Amino acid sequence: MADELVHYEVRRGIATITLDSPHNRNALSTRLRAELTGHLETATADDTVRVVVLSHTGPVFCSGMDLKEAGGASAGEQGVNEFPAILERIWTSPKPVVARLAGPARAGGVGLVAACDIAVAVDTATFAFSEVRIGVVPAVISVTVLPRLLPRAAHELFLTGETFAAPRAAAVGLINSAVPAGELDAEVTRYTDMLALGAPTALAATKRMLREPRSSDLDEVFADMLELSAKHFGGPEGQEGIAAFVEKRPASWVPRD
């Protein structure tokens, strides 16, 4: 719909969620947050969706919380109170989520990028944890950002608020790839095509495995991982995948044109 701030489209198992509020640099306004949440829930519930792409219109991916709405509001009325739920939906989504950045991200926008499993940006995109420069703390986004960033870089970039470019964002672990603008969509497609080859249940289980803390007891860790591995080797997806490999054919979950 033309009056939406966030659009949703599904093609060949790829759900694309597009932030479309360029008048305020795709800031996380009340309305944008609500629409983004709804589309994330739709993608999660749709069994035909294999991969989610988070994209945008306009020159900026996302500028963070809407500061016009934040001004004059008390702590309990701040829109940031709704933001953890959005980051958690992306972080824990059973479907892989790919961020597509054709422009900069700031503050909460960087939190969105970090919550995604894969992030691809044009090499001219810039990033900044600008919170300290306006007297606030990058607290909520730290939950998704810190697991991505090298520790030394995290201290530097969180404390200084310095703007840094996409190549450095890739070097410190914030994004996966920085490419020329003309190659952005091809690079996103390269990732979504690879992700679509994975079995849905196996992908969801792998995402859970990657985010769960591990015991310091090596025997306990091996026991847990053996149980998980054997379960999927013997499960329907594992058996189908093994049969497809032996028979030299695509597995049943691989999308067809």
TrEMBL record:
Pfam families for this protein: ECH_1
Superkingdom of origin = Bacteria
User: Which range is the signal sequence, renumbered to this chain?
Assistant: none
Q: Which family does it belong to?
A: Belongs to the enoyl-CoA hydratase/isomerase family.
Name used for this protein in its record: Enoyl-CoA hydratase
